Amino acid sequence: MLNDPPRPEDLPDAPTGYAALPADYPRPTVGAQPPQPGAYATPPRSPLRTVLASVAVAAVVFAVVLAAWRIGSPPPVAQPQVPLTAPGASGSQSPGSTPSRTVTKDYPAELATFYTQTIDWSPCPDNARHQCGEMEVPVDYAKPSGDRFTLALRKAPATNPSKRLGSLVINPGGPGGSGVQYAQYASFAFSPAVRASYDIVGFDPRGIGGSSPVACLTNSDMDLLFSADPTPDSAAERSKLLADVDGVTKRCAERGGDRARHMGTSEVARDMDVLRVLVGDEKLNYFGGSYGTFLGAVYADLFPAKAGRMVLDSAMSPNQTEGQEMAYDIQGFESSIDAFIDWCVARRDCALGRDKAGARQKIVDLLDDVERHGLTTNKPGLTRIGEGWVGFSIFMCLYSDRSWPTLNKGLAQALTGRGDILLAKGMSVVERSISGAYSPGTYLQAMIPVRCADWPRASSDPSLGAAQAKARRDHPLWARMTGELYDNCRTWPTGGRTPKGTTLGVGADPILVIGNERDPATPIGGTKQLAKDLASGVLLTSDHDGHGTYYAGNSCVDSAVDGYLLRGTAPADGTTC
Q1: Helix, strand and coil percent figures for the chain, each rounded to 5
Q2: By CB distance 3.0 to 4.6 Å, which of 59, 181, 300, 527 could disulfide with 315?
């Protein structure tokens, strides 16, 4: 967060369009504030693909304003189509009791120490109605007697214990998002009906936030990732870019040590199975947003018989190839920038004029000019910013239509040579203070270890290179926003995961996969692919813009998700809201 008071022009305007707050929305508890800047976390395409790349786009934690724009009690799902099994709850537990003695003990004997530990739940310091606790997991599951991570937990107990169905484990994405903070603001993120029936349980993934954090990047490393030229025009510029990236990755590996090399998704999924047993559930009921969908899919593939009611919102598939990632990237960005431009050119104050084609070219020209001359700002230490910060900030404003007025103002200012508004947006997302210090909990700290563990290394296939070159020629604005395409994990000491390329989660109960048609961060192509890749995937799409689908303004989606979580029913596969 910025630690100096924001100026009026730095702040977003009021919500617009479908994100407007309904008059009958049940207000949250007095004093409660949603996390800023937002809820879901999947990275946007960053100035440097190196740290910020996720499967669909580079990742960002808390990039979207928390979706609290909802009606109080969504209507029931109309004519549910897919019957599901019970969620696997083990009865009505008191908020502090754990584990349930009825949970089947089918874990490996060598992991008994972890599966039989007791969580000492106690009232959270900031909210006595919530319960906070910790659990331990092995750093390396192949060496369970070795070093351990201590994971931070937070539970928002079911508000109506008589209706309790079990626990709903949640992950906001990232990689690097805090599930503890997500649970802290459960009343903003989940409907009253879901909160009445589930303990909302969040955890900070291993090495992140309050869970034995691995800090492998310095403030100067993170600034370097935004200050470097993401679109080199010569061999010398490209060589410098790659040297900077390789240096940051290598330093992260050296500082993070063995723990940094064990922050991959498959290990976090195994941690979730330990948590499932400790909260007393036979099956894991789960809600994951953005990168959290990747985590949910990996869990379902590792533990299909233990996958309960799972909602994967704004999804990406662990099976995505480089070619698919690029195609989805283009589709997601183009649809999102077009939606913004359509909105903007209809306004008298549009910074881009009134012509749609001209508006797009004006952004291209702006970024080219920024590459040559930069933008001046009043922020100490960043008095001149380049394409990295500017492209990143523009992309972040596409995450929600709530940020479109800010983007319009930021572009208008940028066209005069100043970048204060856009920089304020970017700094708030990555939690960089005015003094140049990044928050210890910024998602950036997790990006390299998770990225390099989970995504396959860049291919040297000539046909892919040719396809990338053609895509950059055909989509010049996307090319400038994306930056150079390269392997950002070349100096990481361990290899990346190889996608299975086969069906995921065979034997799991039906899994609900949802997404917006115009999502810049996890494009709808990736969401549709995950629904197909999961053996039991059920696809539900929303004809809306932005990142994050549930509890974001579409009562049809909310009705379907609530019906699935509460009654074990899902809409017909392929339903559109």
Answers
A1: 40, 15, 45
A2: 527
CB atoms within 10 A of CB 97: 14
Global pTM reads 0.81
Q: How far apart are CA 9 and CA 31, in angstroms?
A: 26
Rounded Cα distance between 552 and 322, Å, is 30
Nearest to 105 by CA among 280, 317, 354: 280
* C-beta of residue 562 within 8 angstroms of C-beta of residue 569: no
Output the CA torsion 118→122→124→129 (10° steps).
110
Q: What are phi and psi of 576, to 5 degrees?
A: -115, 135
- Containing H/E element for 260? helix 235-260
Is the torsion defined by CA of 557, 561, 563, 566 positive or negative? negative
CB of 138 closer than 8 Å to CB of 108: no
Question: How far apart are the C-alpha atoms of 272 and 265, rounded to whole Å?
Answer: 10
- CB neighbour class for 418 (10 Å; exposed up to 12, middle 13-18, buried from 19): middle
Two tokens, residue 353:
């004029």
519-536 pLDDT, tens digit per residue, is 878 888 889 999 999 999
Q: Give Cβ neighbours of residue 355 (< 8 Å, ≥ 6 apart).
A: 345
What share of the chain has pLDDT > 70, as a percent?
81
Q: What is the pLDDT of residues 554-577, one digit of tens each?
A: 899 999 999 999 999 999 999 999
Q: What are phi and psi of 541, to 5 degrees?
A: -115, 155
In terms of Cα–Cα distance, which of 39, 49, 16 is closest to 448?
A: 49
Classify 551 in phi/psi space as left (phi over 0), alpha (psi -120 to 50) or beta: left
Cβ neighbours for 211, distance < 8 A, ≥ 6 positions apart: 149, 150, 151, 152, 203, 204, 205
424's tokens: 């304020």
What does the angle CA 561 – CA 565 – CA 571 come to, to the nearest 5 degrees?
A: 45
pLDDT value at residue 460: 66
Q: Taking Cα atoms as reference points, which of 572, 41, 500, 534 lies closest to residue 290?
A: 41
Tens digits of residue pLDDT in 305-327: 999 999 999 998 888 887 888 88
Q: Report the C-alpha gap between 433 and 260 in whole angstroms.
A: 25
Query: Does the pLDDT at position 17 exceed 50?
Result: no
User: Which residues 6+ apart lie within 8 Å of 48 measured at CB?
Assistant: 225, 226, 228, 230, 241, 245, 388, 483, 488
SS3 405: helix
CB 541 within 8 A of CB 576: yes
Question: What is the number of H-type helices and E-type strands within the chain?
Answer: 19, 14
